[in-house]
Amino acid sequence: MGDGIMIPLPATLRPYLLGAAGIAILAAAIWVWRIDSLRASHKADAANVRREYALFREQVEAKASQALIAQKAVNAAQEQKWKEKANVADQKHETELAAANAAAERYIRDNRLLRQAVDRGAGGEAGGTAQGDGAQGSDRSGEAADLVAVTADDVRICTENTRRLIDVRDWALGL
Asked: The pTM is what?
């Protein structure tokens, strides 16, 4: 077979062989045309999808931007409302603190204890009594009552802290 010998085809088959070759070439051409047609169709579909996606993305970004602007406006309005409430609460606190401090100063003035030398007995009991500025010489608590002395500064601090806590609570309940 390596000598280059060819087997002759019968003459009756030659026209059919040429027709079969033509049909094969035509089928291959149709197949290539079909592949190109499908490729073009898919490219067109992909381009349409890209356009639709770009349009959708623009719409989503526009709506998100509008929603963000609207939310910022709502936040700004709410923040302004809170600032106004805070200012009102601060003013109320200052007014009430001034009144509470005045009341504390009256209390300090009316209930001030004078320091006296106190005689201590063997049992450690106080032998003397303390007298208040506003006590008018009488023991208001009774003779056997235990007394606790608080400095004027402590009364002021307690008054301020109590007023602050009451005002903070009122402010928080108003939110």
From this structure: 0.48
